[in-house]
Recover the amino acids of this structure.
């Protein structure tokens, strides 16, 4: 599935998420709708046309959240390096409490858009089983 997909394509599920303050810090987090499941491990997250990596996790209060967008999967797991979610919120002039669009594009590919913004996504084909098995063997 290497075709580009617009945010308004029938295969993209768009829901409202909310930009909230992460604890007492000035860092943003995205609170996702209750029916979004937290997948295991890092996923890809597109912000303003750039693909980053993130984890979608269930918080202690039961909400499902995204707390950052990082350059690679390892950084997303460890929440290390620059958190591009901060710059995205600032660049789009989004204050805490503001709703944003959360697009579920494909398994492991999500996008977040400021209200009124458009997006086009490029899903990546999954590797075939033999390549996945080799990668899993290398990971341990």
């Amino acid at each position: 599935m290497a075709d580009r997909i617009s945010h308004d394509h029938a295969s993209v599920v768009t829901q409202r998420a909310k930009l909230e303050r992460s604890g007492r810090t000035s860092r943003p987090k995205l609170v996702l709708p209750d029916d979004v499941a937290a997948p295991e491990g890092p996923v890809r997250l597109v912000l303003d046309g750039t693909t980053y990596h993130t984890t979608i996790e269930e918080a202690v209060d039961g909400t499902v959240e995204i707390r950052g967008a990082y350059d690679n999967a390892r950084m997303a797991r460890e929440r290390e390096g620059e958190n591009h979610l901060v710059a995205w919120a600032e660049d789009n002039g989004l204050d805490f409490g503001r709703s944003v669009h959360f697009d579920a594009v494909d398994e492991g590919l999500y996008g977040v858009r400021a209200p009124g913004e458009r997006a086009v996504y490029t899903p990546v084909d999954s590797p075939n089983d033999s390549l996945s098995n080799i990668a899993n063997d290398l990971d341990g």
About this structure: The two ends are 29 Å apart (CA to CA).
